[in-house]
Amino acid sequence: MKFAGKTETGLRKQNEDNFMLLHTDTLDAVAVSDGMGGHQAGEIASQLAVETLEKRLLLNSSDPEATLSGAFVEANAAVHDLASENDDMYGMGCTLVAAILEPDRFVAANVGDSRLYHFDGKALRQVTHDHSFVAELVRRGAITPEEAKTHPRRNLITRAIGTELRVVADVFCCEWKQNDMLLLCSDRLCGVLDDAEMAAYLRNCTDLDATCTALIQRALTAGSRDNITVVLAENDGGEA
Is residue 9 included in any domain, yes or no? Predict the structure, then answer.
């Protein structure tokens, strides 16, 4: 597998995003976490979530679905416990999206509104489902996806890592083939760029690192003011 990741502070004073690119002899995995805006210590929450996820994945990956689901439970507990023990971190939380990669399939999970997309060389498909107020409105048909981008409550998350004692991640098991790509990102990429534009960058990709940078720069040009994180993974047909 091939990986690349980039994170950009944007116009914020600090970057509350974190990402993971994990490669061992037996495991390939990627993740993105976005510290909850408006909450204290969001950067600590996202860092702790990613670190806990990585440690759990390294312990056991024989059952990817169970391993990933369990890793999210442990990440949630780690962030929630730290927030409960420190008054200055009370209420902190983060989103988390991750995937374990195999030659013929990937297993993905998410909590919050950071997303994972699958690109098959032609079309870009959102795999994960946002846990947000506006996403629920879109699912109900109350607003359109375009209206969601400017909705005054678009930043309201309905499920997050660390803000509750327990959390359940959505888990997805999907097939992919050689040369397919995955795009993981925080909401300030997909919140300003539509699927067609992101797909165009992936379709023309010759270097993962450069494409991550180009996507971030395009989002900044399009008006994104927040932290932006992009991770790309390409199925090169090899074993982990």
Answer: yes
Ordered DSSP codes for 14-55: S--EEEEEEE-SS-EEEEEEEBPTTSTTHHHHHHHHHHHHHH
β-strand partners of 5? 231
| Single pTM value for the model | 0.94
CATH number, position 68: 3.60.40.10
Please give the Cα distance from 34 to 186 (Å, whole number).
Answer: 6
Residue 165 counted as domain residue:
yes
Q: pLDDT tens digit string along 135-176?
A: 888 788 888 777 777 777 777 889 999 999 999 999 999 999
Total domains present in the chain: 1
Domain presence at residue 223? yes
221: left (phi over 0), alpha (psi -120 to 50) or beta: alpha
- Report d(CA 7, CA 212) in Å as an integer: 9
Is 239 within a domain? no
